[in-house]
Amino acid sequence: xxxxxxxxxFDPPTLGHLNIIQRAASLFDxxxxxxxxxxxxxxxxxxxxxVSMIEEMTGEIKNVSVAVCDSLIVDFLQKQDIKLLIxxxxxxxxxxxxxxxxxxxxxxxxxxxxxxxxxxxxxFVLRSSSIKELASFxxxxxxxxxxxxxxxxxxxxxxx
Length: 160
Ligand code: ADP
Description:
By secondary structure, the chain is α/β, with parallel strands linked by helices. The protein has six helices and five strands; from the N terminus they run E-H-E-H-E-H-E-H-E-H-H. The chain has a five-stranded parallel β-sheet with strand order 3-2-1-4-5, with helices on both faces. Strand 4, helix 4 and strand 5 form a beta-alpha-beta unit. The termini are far apart. The site of adenosine-5'-diphosphate (ADP) has 19 residues, from helix 1, strand 4 and helix 5.
């Protein structure tokens, strides 16, 4: 039974995240999407909101579930008995950051294997932070996030 985890902020989840989730879910028996809740960080959406958006987006994929992690990811993975960690990479910048992160996680727990999945070219410009900025100026994000996320962004930023 191959279980993998896909951790991230998902603030908000995008079509790029969904693409990685779909592809990872087809490779592993179970995929746990892990929503990070770091008290040092400011999020636009609460952990509960991020979880419910991801649950709605992935409702049709039977082997995907969603959880929140407010501790070190390696400790969380140990408790869940998961050794495979999936991360998406959009380009070299992502890769250098992700590479360091994977070294750190390996130092903390040598059993953790990080698997990098390259973005689908269609989604490589998608980044939650830019999408929030665009939405804050009432820009059109409908090609970047699922409709339910576009609606949630509209509700957060309101109409001018
Ligand atoms: P971000 O704020 O960078 O969009 P997250 O922390 O929510 O990211 O991302 C979780 C994981 O998803 C990270 O491994 C990130 O590199 C990956 N990811 C985010 N957007 C994409 C995308 N468009 N294509 C592939 N991977 C992505």
